[in-house]
Write the structure tokens for this entry.
Amino acid sequence: MNFKSRNVDDTYRLAKVIANTLNGGDIVLLNGDLGAGKTTFVKGIAKEMGIKENVTSPTFTLLKTYHGNKYNIVHVDAYRLSGDEFGELDDYLNDENVIFIEWSSMLTSKLINSALLIDIKYISKNQRMFTISATNAHYESYLSEIMKNV
Ligand code: ADP
Ligand code: MG
């Protein structure tokens, strides 16, 4: 499905709907150029999941965990990684966590074979095109729910 965001608030609105659709153990892969809005989207997710801390780009720390009301957010930036360098990502896959990975295309871990896929394209200063897809039936069932609620 496609979602055209006209401003940051639109992106937060989409993030809110997706936050309420996801379950513990889910993985969301975010791809798109630098400045597309991947981290901004995760900020919106965090807000909805009851995280008070400011979510910042994990580029230099690679991975950050935030404790929400129901789930933890594990926020990964794979930009500086390659291949299976992030083998320990498996350690974070459990029912208490929802994992968000920026630049997942840099990874080869088989973890990323089952995920909700979000691609963000820059249109203009304030507009972005979100393309949301699924790798399998589990995540496909989310698409109609997201479409209905956004
Ligand atoms: P990325 O993590 O993809 O590199 P960021 O989220 O860090 O990107 O940066 C996106 C930038 O674009 C932010 O400064 C944000 O305020 C701005 N922006 C402008 N319009 C939008 C929009 N519609 N959705 C998301 N971000 C937007
Ligand atoms: Mg980022």
Q: What stands out?
A: The chain has one domain: 2-149. Residues 40 and 135 are 23 Å apart (CA to CA). The longest strand covers residues 116-124.
